[in-house]
Amino acid sequence: MSTLRRNGRRPERPERLPGDGIAIVGAACHLPGAPDLDTFWTLLAEGRDAVTSIPPERFDQARWLHPRKSEAGRTYTFAAGTIGDAAGFDAQAFGLSPREAAEMDPQQRVLLEVAAEAFEDAGWPGERLAGRNIAVFVGGSSTDYAELRLADPSAADRFFMTGNALSILSNRIGNVFDLRGPAQTVDTACSSSLVALHLAVRALRDDPSLEAAVVGGVSMLLSPYSFIGFSRAGMLSPTGRCQAFDAAADGYVRAEGAGVVVLKRLADAIADGDAIRAVLLGTGANAAGRTIGLSLPNRNAQAALMERVIACSGIAPERFLAFEAHGTGTRVGDPAETWAIGTTIAQRRAAPLPIGSVKTNIGHLEAASGMAGLLKAMLMLEKGAIPPSLHFREPNPEIDFAGLNIAVQTRLAPAPVAADSVVGVNSFGFGGTNATVLVGRAPETKPRAAAAGRSMPPLVLSARSEAALTLLAQRWRERLDGADAAETAALARGVARHRDLATHRLVLRGEDGATLAATIDAWATGEKPASAEQGQAVRGALAYVFSGNGAQYAGMAQEALRHSAPFRAAVKQADAVLAPLLGWSPLAVLKRGVTAEALTGTDIAQPLLFAVQVGVVGALAAQGIRPAMALGHSVGEVAAAWCSGILTLEQAARLIVARSGHQHATRGTGRMAAIGASPEALALLLEACGPGLEIAAVNGPSAVTVAGPAEAIARLCPAAEQARFSAVPLDLDYAFHAAAMEPVRDGLLRDLAALAPQAGTMPMVSTVTGATLPGEEAGAAYWWRNLREPVRFRDAAREAGRMGVRLFLEIGPSPVLQSYLRESLREDTGEAAVLASLSRRDPPGDPFPAVIDRAIARGADPRGG
Length: 865
Prior knowledge:
The protein contains 32 helices and 27 strands.
């Protein structure tokens, strides 16, 4: 994600922003007829009216509806802009229990969903927000859900208060995303969300330690009581339409929904490479003071606020592209507001100032209405167009349009956006609290050039439940359809870099947007396309497990060498240090195709194994996959020590050459066998079949490798089978980890005397000791123990599990440790995923996309986490 940095500058005046302002770096909405920002703009541009009526399942409307305005306890309208299902909510996606979610006001639920989408839009993974000093400001005033719940007090449980208190609207976001900045819910009636925005801007300017701020507004229409109250006050439109600025204006239409923006200091946003959507150039709030009636607007107070905000921001009237008015469609409110806009801005410029109101499209969201206006302003600047304000046919005679130099925008009009263009937004509360915001265009930023020859990355989608993943995939399907290869690659890289990696994952491959869209379609119907990898991520770290002897095979790694440039480059690096020591080139042998006969000698097999393992690590790292821990089986510990930073590549090369050469000198002095028994169960059998038999490796709870003289191994296998243990003689002419190694001890220690290990960059769990290996202790004596003592693989795997590893990726030409890992981890770790990298069954072509996709789907982080 983009780094959240701090800025220590302090402002001179509250309403004046620094010259570069406050950036909107993320935004999202769920509004009537518009579940997202793209749909919202389409609705605005097409001039559609999303107002319908309250869904019948909300409450018994017939009981409360009456056409006569004077009817007590009744409302004359249930016209409204709604967002549909008020009950649907994926509690699991936010770590909430179904019981607690049921008591939560739907306003909290909608806010969480929209906040998550705003963070996604900002490219800030939720997991990396945890613990950050980020503030939350929310505008909200409705208590409909609590009113409904109070009808049956006995049904309230321990979650009722936190589920319904207005303060929790902001606290809930801070709690779920683990944000540590202040959380404040603002209730100034219809101006709540813009006042919340103003407070957030001031907080960012006044508190240098504050990293960012989340600002939202929400309103849900769940009860008939507010309809009744506003009807009694005569505020609602009997015609069910918000006819702002029109002679027929007869009141406003209620609406519901939510909008959220993520704010950051502009200088920080630019420095951190955030995608900036717009810039807040000025904000302010004031109160109407004493008026004839509490709910009557004070045009002088409105004008004074606009005058002050404009003056403090230093914006000339000619810079205004348009002005998004509060525009509720009331007989008193519209004339007062237009007078204030005209006298402070429009009369001081040559061209008439276009004005409009989003309430004509979606209704009045009350506490969230300012957020809807802000998002409309942001989109106008992004799209370079002014959408129409609806239901304007005959100008309100109480408004002097010509004298005020204002014009209601009645059609979609292209509006070339200059670098200094501004859109104003007003929001006024019926208690007299006013708010004004000036929104500027996002600065031009230089796009980062794409690296030449970069391959198409996977598109990684993730969510906290399978249902949420399905919905996310469908949203991406629409976004991808029609995107060319370059656009698709940019989107995929952006998601891989920024998107929150949740538990349920879908990893997609494709050459362009259309291909990915088709893959999503196939996956959604239950197919299992090869280019889609779905999985449930385990919760824990990733460890690389380096294969030991037995992973090699004739012709290994040839497809990877041909088709994977990162693999090839890493093997070349290994070859550069190995070849001078060996007198032959591992790279050349691998390219040519190593034979089965050559692999029978440790002096050939082990350097080749090491080179392949270095190549696999390099190929995975090129796609951002990096482990948190390493362990290796026997000779695999050499690559593990290199991977963990204990040994340099040159040191590891010298070690593998010395180790394999000395082991090769013991060829023909013993044999080995794999026995399906525990060490305890095997003890008497070894004594009976000896002498000279030793346990060479404990690989699992019932998986032991035995080494010793050939004749003793020949006696052991049938005896083990007779005792009802599986017994498989290994095709090895060596007795590793046994007395047959003793003759090479002095020579190995002498050749490794100059080895200078160091503290590693990550933990390495030793299969010599079964515990974490201090890097400084990995000198010559340790590597003699690695050669001579039994491999405690079972202990090492369990120790890795106890240390928090839950994803184990075997690194080698073909997997040989998978069953051992699963059986060992099953003893006390429980949930764990065991995967392979290369395999002799890999299809032709580059094997690493499939390896990487499987790893990401099961929990790996492609950002190197």
